[in-house]
Amino acid sequence: MGATFKICCCYAAILAAPSALAFSPSALNANIRATTSTSALFATANDNENVAGAITKNDDIDSRLRRHLVLSLLATVSASAVPFAADATTTTTTSNVETSSLTSAAEVVKLLKPPLDQREYETYELPNGLKVLLCSDPTSTSAAVGMNVHVGACSDPVEIPGLAHFCEHMLFLGTEKYPEEDSFAKFLSANGGYNNAFTDSEKTVYFFEVDGSIDKRFSEALLRFGSFFSGPLFTESATGRELNAIDSENAKNLQNDIFRLYELEKDRVNSDHPFSKFFTGNKKTLLEGTKRQGINLRNELVKFYESYYSSNQMSLAVVAPQSLPQLR
Question: Is position 107 annotated as part of the catalytic site?
Fold first, then answer.
C-alpha cells in the first residue's frame, strides 16, 4: 500500500534560480528539542501572509518566488499525515513521479511534481519526530530553509492575547549558543540573505535565505537557525524592549485595510472560538494586562515555548543545489 504527496508549488516551473543550500537535516536534528507532546497535526497549505508577525521585508521578485517555493514545500510536508521512516533510502525517478522506498515500513511515498520540474525531492521523518522535505536543485546558488511549528495565535492563553506572536519575535533575540540579539539577521545580511517569520492562527513559520555557494557559511546559518528551537534566551531586557516592537506593529496594522477586514471577520465568529482572539497583541494585552493580573510575562513565554515548541510538532522544508544523498 502506498501514499502520494503532491508538491504544492505552483511557482516551481517558473523559477529560473530557486533556492539552494548545503546542509544535513541530521545536524539540525541535534539542535531541536525532542519531547513528548500532543500529536503533531501540522498546518495545511496556506501561503497567506495576512498574519500577526513579520520581522524583516524583502520583496524583490526573485526572493518572493523563492519564498513561495520553500513555503509551498513546507506546506506539503506539514500537511502530511502519513508515517515516515527515519532511514529513507535512495530515491528513484520515473517520469514525473519520484518514489522514495522506506525500508523500515511498508509504505511507499510518491511525490508528485509538475512534468517540467527537474528538481528531485525526498521526504522522511527524523527520530525526534521532525518531518523533513528535501528538494535538490543543481541550478540554484542560494540557500533557503523554512520551519513550521504547529502552534499559532489560537493557542494563546485567554489571559495573554498575542503571546504566540510575541514568542515568534523573541526567538530572534539571542540563544544560548548565539546570545547576541539580532545576530542571525546580521549574519544573513552580511552573507547576501534575509529572514522572516509569521504567526498564523494554527502555525508559526520561520524561514531564511542566504548565499549557499560556500558550505561552511551555510552550515553556520543553519546552526544559528536551529538554535532558535533548542535554546532561546528570552532575556528580561529583550522581553521588555520587544514589547515596543509588538505595539508598533499593531499600530501599523490599524492603518492597513487588509488587517481591518481580517479583524472584522474575526469579530463575526463565535466569541467562544479561539479564532476570535486578538492575535497580534500590544502593550495593553502583553504588559498592562499581565501586570494587572499578577502574571509574569517572561515565565508565561517560557512555559508557552516549552509546551509547544517540540520537534514532533515541527516540519522542515529545504531547497538546495546538492544531491539528495548530500542533503540527507
Answer: no
E strands of the chain, at which residues?
A: 2-6, 88-94, 97-102, 108-112, 120-125, 131-136, 142-149, 194-199, 204-211, 314-320
Residues ≥6 apart with Cβ < 8 Å to 286: 160, 161, 162, 163, 166, 243, 246, 297
pTM listed for this prediction = 0.75
Residue of 98, 122, 125, 168 with catalytic role: 168
Q: In angstroms, rounded to a whole number, what is the distance separating the alpha carbons of residues 191 and 171?
A: 21
Q: Is 180 exposed, middle or buried (0-12, 13-18, 19+ CB in 10 A)?
A: exposed
Burial of 266 (0-12, 13-18, 19+ CB in 10 A): middle
Return the SS3 of 208.
Answer: strand
Amino acid code (one letter) for 111: L
As a whole number of Å, the end-to-end CA separation of the chain is: 25
Cβ–Cβ contacts within 10 Å for residue 289, how many?
18
DSSP string, 88-99: EEEEEEETTEEE
253-286 pLDDT, tens digit per residue, is 999 999 999 999 988 999 999 999 999 999 999 9
Vertex 67, ends 65 and 72: CA angle to 5°? 95
The answer to whether the beta carbons of residues 168 and 199 sit under 8 Å apart is yes
Q: Which amino acid is at 129?
A: G
